[in-house]
Amino acid sequence: MSSILTNTSAMVALQTLRGINSNLAQTQNEISTGKSVGNARDNAAVWSISRTMDSDLSSFKAIGDSLALGQSSVAVARQAAETTTDLLTEMKTLIVSAQEENVDRGKLQTDIAALREQISAVVNTAQFNGLNMVQGTDQVNVLSSLDRDSSGNVSAAHIRVDRQDLTTEAGTFNVSGTSLNANATASAAAVSDAGNTAVVEFNSGAYTDSGLMARLTVAGVQIDFEGGAGLDQDDAAAFFEGAINALQLDGITASASGADLTITSTRAFEGVSLDISELAGAAANTHIANLNGSATAGNPVTGSIDERAQNVTFSTTAAVQDGDGYRVSVGSQSFTYVAGPNESFEDVARGLKAAVDSAGLEGITTAVTQDTNGAWQLKVDNDGSSQLFQAVGNAGGTASGGLFGLDGINVTTEAGARAALDNIETMIQRSIDSAAAFGSSQKRIDIQNDFISKLSDSLTAGIGSLVDADMEATSARLQALQVQQQLATQSLSIANQQPQNVLALFR
User: 46-162+430-460 adopts what CATH topology?
Assistant: First the structure.
């Protein structure tokens, strides 16, 4: 049936043309924008995923800027620490020269002061965008990533960089802080020049035998006494007194009273070993001598004379916290060191040594050692009149600078030059450790920055694969749609001619 009111063929052709035009419009839009999914209408799920990833990509670009800033800040700090190490090494050379007696220590001290001022200048100017990482002890957090979990929750991640304080600040001792006295034990209430002694009591009846040979070993030096007719224990004591004093051993003297030989040592940081043995002549297990009243059977009889120095022994079980301050009193003066983050009792002992040495007290010398239990000790020797000696500790202070004690280095005296040699080694090691710590942090930031750059590229590629148009396929589709459009137009034109055929029925 033909109708002039309803042209079904034209309707079909028109719908086909509309579909082709719609597809053609979409294809042309993809070509002009380069995207197959340009908005949520195109593909809501893909568009949502791509927008989330695009948001993360923008954040990672900002993180890259943060990492670049942190990288530059740490690089400046590392260079400052390395420069400080070089300057301290140069200072050490001058201090070594000051150990010689025939030098102008005053001129050496002038050069040391100049290097000290240069170190201060380096530390004060080592900042980037206002951040100085070689001053203070606060941690610096560098934004390194955004972490998104499976639930879509986002959290920021940071690279922690510890400041490395290379200042010479003294720190602040908190007088009202929690007591730490139990962590630092002084061996005596006073330090004095009095030497420590050992008494050798030579036994009677053993020295008349001309075949007897007795040996006394003092600080590794052997002295032999040969018995004989008419000789007795008093003669043995007198002989060893003369022999020991004739050796002029550093800090060691002897005096005899009857059969008792008193050996005195004023060696500051070194004990003196003693050994009394019978080489020949006496029957087995004969007591040729007693030491400090000891009558242990057999020989040799061994012992020692303790060092003269007193000590502060630090705990082997307690930990050192940031702000823990320890104070040592010598006479009327007190010397303080306040620990910073990640320090140990070795650092505390060396800090207190630097504090005491900086005062230049006449006759006072110091050393840092470990005892047989592994406990760190600050040893203080006094070659003058007796002085008060005590140690206390409190928590909650402000940490001393990493180069604390540098201001007190003075090589104008022999004692000062010796003390400076020990202290400069500690400061050089701290500076080296600081540079190494900054180097490790900088390397980690470099790695993270490289990863973020690659991750951003991967995200960009991933987003592109979701929403970018395939231009080869789109181009081919455009050509096909253009042909389809032409054919559909022709088809519609033909369909629109159908009502004209009805006129032939009325001719």
Answer: f41 fragment of flagellin, N-terminal domain (1.20.1330)
Instruction: Please write the tens of the pLDDT for every residue from 96-120.
Output: 999 998 899 999 999 999 999 999 9
- Beta-strand runs (E) in 281-345: 289-291, 301-305, 310-314, 325-330, 333-338
Structure tokens, 1: 């049936």
CA 78, distance to chain mean position in Å, is 13
15-58 pLDDT, tens digit per residue, is: 887 877 777 777 766 676 666 666 766 677 777 777 777 777 77
- Distance (Å, whole) CA 481 – CA 474: 10
CATH number for the domain running over 181-192+310-400: 2.60.40
Interval 252-302: pLDDT, tens: 999 999 999 999 999 999 999 998 887 665 444 456 778 887 755 456 788
* Rounded CA separation 185/378 (Å): 10
Which CATH fold topology does 196-305 show?
Answer: Immunoglobulin-like (2.60.40)
Q: Closest Cα to residue 492, out of 1, 19, 9?
A: 9
Measured CA to CA, the distance from residue 112 to residue 118 in angstroms comes to: 10
